[in-house]
Structure formats: C-alpha cells, structure tokens
Amino acid sequence: MFKKDPASEIHWVRYTGADHRIHRERVGTLTDAKAKLEVSHVEARLGQRPVIARAKVTLKATLADLIDDTNAFLSKERSADHAYGQKRQFNRMLPDFGKRPADSLTRHEIIDWLDDAADELEWSDSTYNRYLAGFSLMFRIGIEKEKIHINPVHSIRRRQEDNTRVRFLIPEEEIAITKVLQERHPDYANVFILALHTGTRTSEGLRGTVGDFDPATGMIAIHQTKDIRKPKIRFVPASPKAIAAYQALAAGKKLRTPLCTNRQRDQLYEYRYWMVPAIEASGVTDFTAKDLRHTAASCWVMSGVPLAAVAKYLGHSSIQMTAMRYSHLTPNVNAQATAAMMSFYPATGGATSGK
C-alpha cells in the first residue's frame, strides 16, 4: 500500500499480476486498502490473480515532438540562458533525427551520432557530456508524457572529463584580447573584462543584472543555478577593472534588467561568436572562454588569497576541489617544499651517496 500524495487520504495498492507486470490500483481509504490487500493475498495463494490485458500501443511521437516538449519545459522551469543553450543543442539534432519516430532510436545510433559529432567538431569531453544530458532529459520528459516507452540513453556512459587544466592569461595577453574586442566589439569588451575579474562561469556572468554591484561593500553578486544545495547568490570582491566594466555595462539601464546585452539591448546568452574570433585575432593561443574563470582563480591564489576564500568566490562545492586544481599556485609552496627536503642534508652537500 502507498500514497502518491503524502497529504492525501487516497491509498493505492501495488501488486504483480499473473502477467508478471507491476500494477497499481487506486483504492481509497486506508481501511479499504488493507481489505483490498488482504483479498489480493488470498487470491495470489489460490492462483486466481487475473491477467490484465494491455493493448499494444504504437507511439507516433517524433524526436521533434519530444524536443518541443522539452523546450517548453525548459522555458518554464529553467533559466533563460539554460533554455537558450539547450535549444542550440536540439537544433543540431533535428536535421538527423527530427522526423524519426522517437521510440525507434537505438542506443547505438545515439552513441555513433555523438562520437561522429565530437570528432568532426572537436568537442571536449564536457561538451560531449552536455549533449548526452540533453538526450537524456528529452527522453525522460517523453516518458513522463507517455509519448515513448523507454530511454535509450540511460546506459550510455559519460566521458571522463579532464579537470586538471589550469590555463590563465598573463597581463600582456589580456591587453591583446581587450584591444581586439575594443576595435571589433566595443560593447562586449567590458563583458570580457568583468568575467575575467570575477571568475564567473559563462552562464553566471551572462545572468548578471543591473544592481548586482554594491559600492558600500565593494562586492558583486553572482547568480548561480548549478548547485541547488547552495544559495542562489554568492558574492565576489570586485577589482577596480571589474567595477569600471560593470559601470560601463550598467550605464543607462534600469535596475534589475540584464547587465550583459547585445546591440539591440536584448540579453546576451553566449560568448562564442564574438570572443573566439577575437582571441584568434589577438594571437593568444590555447585559451578558451572557460579559462577566464581559471585566470581569476589563479590570480587570487598566486596573490596569497586563502584557498577557502577562493573556493567561496568560485562557488565550488568543496575546498578540496579548489585545492586539487590551484594549490600548486600557492605563493612559495614549491620553494618551501624544496627547502624542507634539503633541510635533512648537511649545508655543504647534497644527497648522500647511499653507501
């Protein structure tokens, strides 16, 4: 016996029928449910459980139908930037799968599609995993709406992501990229500077609103949705460059409206189309938008900011994550380790001969 809604007095009975399927029946009060359960036990012992015939249902939903349902869900339940990014992924799936009956797609077809796209477009492992998550969400919603029977991606393994990369800009590189942006996209140069000096994730930086900076504290509010266990807002100290960039972006805009906007004053949802060409034109190599976050974190650690504070600024789930990636940048840590090792040897010599 169980209740679907803990606040309701309606009880249900779940049992396995003679057809070896799980069935659920709505009964009513707790007394009725107990009586129903007792009768069912007697029938089961006598082998009298009825076979409940189920008509075979042929589902006609296409993958495009599932995508429409998922986009509607995202627009209602998720942030605008999340919905925008997910829609871009779905648009890439549509030419190959859009007209296919959704329940005809197989696990191996999806794996082959992901592998081919990853090779052709040089996806990182994290991008591969995001597309896999998009497929999974789409099929989950399809099942909930009873448009498909199974989720073919539930057993596809995620790729192991490399979280050891730490690439940060040196001042000369920052100047080079900023110069190109000021020439090509002057409206976006301040978006780049603000992200670089606050260490936000891409979606967090573009989620900012006018009024996030508090002159009294010198802190800027960062809106996060990645971890539902954490507060929706965290605070990061704003450098003079970050403050200047914020003020330039906020000029002429109403309170609580989007801070980062395009030339039409609509909210900006991505960096890629303007930042990637600017980085290439600047001559800076091996640098991506995600490395803006690494740059802020690295500068904080190398300047002596405690790892616990850096973890808080970055919104990491634990200080262990911060330490694993950035502790090697702690000031003088390598020199101290070398000095500690050599302190065991005589001042006049190095390692012993071992004899």
Topology:
Elements: E1 11-16, E2 22-28, H1 30-45, H2 63-77, H3 80-97, H4 107-121, H5 125-144, H6 171-184, H7 186-198, H8 202-206, E3 213-214, E4 219-223, E5 233-237, H9 240-250, H10 272-282, H11 291-302, H12 307-314, H13 319-326, H14 333-342
Antiparallel strand pairs: 1-2, 3-4, 4-5
Key attributes of the depicted protein:
DNA polymerase, domain 1; hpI Integrase, Chain A; 355 residues; 14 helices; disordered C terminus; 5 strands; single chain
What does this structure look like?
Helix 7 (186-198) crosses helix 11 (291-302). The strands form two sheets. Strands 3-4-5 form a three-stranded antiparallel beta sheet. The chain starts with 10 loop residues before the first strand and ends in a 13-residue tail after the last helix. The protein has three domains: 1-54, no CATH class; 63-144, DNA polymerase, domain 1 (Orthogonal Bundle), CATH 1.10.150; 171-334, Orthogonal Bundle (hpI Integrase, Chain A), CATH 1.10.443. It is mainly alpha-helical. 50% of the residues lie in helices and 7% in strands. The radius of gyration is 28 Å and the shape is globular. Residues 350-355 have low confidence and may be disordered. A hairpin with a 4-residue loop joins strand 3 (213-214) and strand 4 (219-223). It contains 14 helices and five strands.
